[in-house]
């Protein structure tokens, strides 16, 4: 996905705990934003570019967990040498979970704009 494609989806800021599984490990990461096409996550792990991971997260306590597969689209360093920002693109996401994400982004966008 290039920058033009990424910008087609509205992103909203969010702080959600995300479980990232792959390479026989599971780590916790924190989302910084979400769209219907992916996440920006902050973590203490450098993920491999173009690698696929299983993500597990809950948008709000009233909804069931979302489990999906996502690919690493980009990686950025920040001032802290132990923290990485990683862009994940959803690659396997059920229609029901996509609808949950779309509703969440719309509701957050409406409340942020108010």
UniProtKB/TrEMBL annotation:
<protein>
    <recommendedName>
        <fullName>PilZ domain-containing protein</fullName>
    </recommendedName>
</protein>
<dbReference type="GO" id="GO:0035438">
    <property type="term" value="F:cyclic-di-GMP binding"/>
</dbReference>
<dbReference type="InterPro" id="IPR009875">
    <property type="entry name" value="PilZ_domain"/>
</dbReference>
<feature type="domain" description="PilZ">
    <location>
        <begin position="5"/>
        <end position="106"/>
    </location>
</feature>
<dbReference type="Pfam" id="PF07238">
    <property type="entry name" value="PilZ"/>
</dbReference>
């Amino acid at each position: 996905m290039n920058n033009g494609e990424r910008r087609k989806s509205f992103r909203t800021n969010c702080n959600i705990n995300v479980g990232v599984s792959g390479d026989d490990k599971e780590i916790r990461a924190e989302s910084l934003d979400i769209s219907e096409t992916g996440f920006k996550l902050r973590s203490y792990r450098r993920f491999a570019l173009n690698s696929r991971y299983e993500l597990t997260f809950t948008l709000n306590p009233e909804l069931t967990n979302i489990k999906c597969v996502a690919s690493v689209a980009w990686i950025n360093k920040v001032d802290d040498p132990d923290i990485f920002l990683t862009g994940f693109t959803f690659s396997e996401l059920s229609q029901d979970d996509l609808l949950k994400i779309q509703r969440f982004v719309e509701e957050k966008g409406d409340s942020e704009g108010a």
